[in-house]
Amino acid sequence: MFAYYFKLGLRNLRRNPALTALMVLILAVGVAASVSTLAILHVMSGDPIPGKSERLFVPFVDNGQPEEGATYDQPEDMQLSYQDAMNLLRKHPAERATAMFGTGMPVEPPRKDIPAFQAYGLAPTRDFFAMFEVPFLHGQPWSADDETRGANVVVLNRTVAEKLYGDANPVGQRLVMKGEPFTVVGVLGDWNPMPRYYKLIGSGPATGEEFMIPLATAVRKELTPYGSVNCSQTRDPGYASLLASECTWVQAWFETRSGADRAELQSFLDNYANEQRKLGRLKRNAPNRLYDVMEWMEQRKVVGNDTRLSAWLAFGFLVLCLVNTVGLLLAKFSARASEVGIRRALGASRREIFQQFLIETGVIGLAGGLLGLLLAFGALALIGMQSRSMAAMARMDWEMLGMTFVISICAALVAGLLPTWRACQVTPAMQLKSQ
Q: Residue 213 contacts by C-beta under 8 Å, 6 or more apart in sequence?
């Protein structure tokens, strides 16, 4: 009977086209508002590197100055000093490890028709590419020897590579950056994860890093860290002083062979902190922490209270649309009281009447879902026009496509419960007498 009632529902959509169109539109607007907000929340809170997120860890040791009576359950800065980052990279038991900081350099294009410009990039160690599964369009990461020597090598992102060299493969070409020639060793493929979970502290371009160079090269060239540099005490001027200071400006990551190796990594971090305390450092004696990817995103509040509040407001708007839909369905079904009375007199049970009208409501929900999906795409496009970072997050995957129809049909069915129940209460004798 489902197929039969579904056909009846499609036919009854044309019975009162104005009322039906109004119901579909109201439902579609509510669905579009909730789904577009939910899609952004889904992108921001989803696992950015499935299958590996439980093996990637951010280490943290608190090297701040002790304050009398202070507690340090939630430190303000979650970066490392340069000396801590380098010590951890040299001694770690993990499968891979990387340290990085954001920076920038002026670029002198090889083409005369392009003026010099400031590029923003990242200075990691070479394990970064394997740890975060960074794809390459051309070439590969720099070699271990390049990293040890602090060689002038660079990996460009696809946008900058096409801007400078067109569609040609630029690997092996020389590029002048900050007045020195750099050799291009690779070009990144399409890789711009949102949120930028690998570097949540400090600012950066919305389109992703425009170049990457070895951390040792950036230090040798004394490149200025771009982003957050926090110093708990006064330091001497100069780059060497920055490297030797307790200022925190470097981000580190570890990759273990499995999630079960977390305890071993935590033990290593605790032992390192104890060694440093014997040398007169890490005086706060605060707990040492490891965060996997999802814990790190939660700690950094990637999904803020404003985003959650927007989602709740959107669903509140959907509820308001459902209230209006209930009123329209009551009017639509009340006008068919005589039809229900005749069907009941001919032997149809209340259950059958309930099934028929509820399936008809589901058809309205399906139509509202189709229109709501189109409106949601339009809303996401408008949101994406605000900035490039929003454009990267304002997108819809297959999961959200399916969720659109689930929300629409479920919302329509919920809205149709009261009108359908009222329709089932029609008394056949009263309707036949009135006819």
A: 121, 123, 152, 153, 154, 155, 182
d(CA 310, CA 375) in angstroms, rounded, equals: 18
DSSP 30: H
CB contact at 8 A, 106 and 116: yes
Report the phi/psi class of residue 19: left, alpha or beta, with left for phi > 0 and alpha for psi in -120 to 50: alpha
Q: DSSP 3-state assignment of 313?
A: helix
Place of tokens 């720099």: 142
Is 372 buried (19+), middle (13-18) or exposed (0-12) by CB count in 10 A? Answer: buried
* Alpha-carbon gap, residue 406 to 365, rounded angstroms: 9
The gap between the terminal CA atoms of the chain, to the nearest Å, is 28
Q: Write out the chain's pLDDT in tens, 435 residues.
A: 767 767 766 677 677 777 778 888 888 888 888 877 777 776 667 788 888 999 999 999 988 777 644 455 556 678 999 999 999 999 899 999 999 999 999 999 988 888 999 999 999 999 999 999 999 999 999 999 999 999 999 999 999 999 999 989 999 999 999 999 999 999 999 888 877 889 988 766 666 789 999 999 999 999 999 888 888 778 888 999 999 998 999 999 999 999 899 999 999 999 999 999 999 888 888 889 999 999 998 888 877 566 666 777 777 777 777 777 777 777 776 666 667 666 666 666 777 777 777 777 778 777 777 887 788 777 777 766 665 555 556 666 667 767 777 777 777 777 777 777 776 665 655 545 555
| Residue that has been written with the tokens 């580190």 in this structure | 252
Q: Torsions phi, psi of 258, nearest 5?
A: -155, 165
Provide the phi-psi class of 98: left if phi over 0, else alpha when psi is between -120 and 50, else beta.
beta
Crossing angle of helices 350-384 and 2-12, rounded to 10°: 60
Ramachandran region, residue 50 (left: φ > 0; alpha: ψ -120 to 50; beta: rest): beta
**In this structure, how many other beta carbons lie within 10 angstroms of the beta carbon of residue 125?**
24
* Helices then strands, each counted (H, E), the chain: 16, 11
Which residues contact residue 397 at a Cβ distance below 8 angstroms, ignoring those fewer than 6 apart? 42
Among candidate residues 48, 64, 45, the one with its CA nearest the CA of residue 56 = 48
**Dihedral angle, C-alpha 233, 236, 239, 243, nearest 10 °:** -40
Instruction: Report how far residue 189's alpha carbon sits from residue 431's, in angstroms, rounded to the nearest whole number.
Output: 70
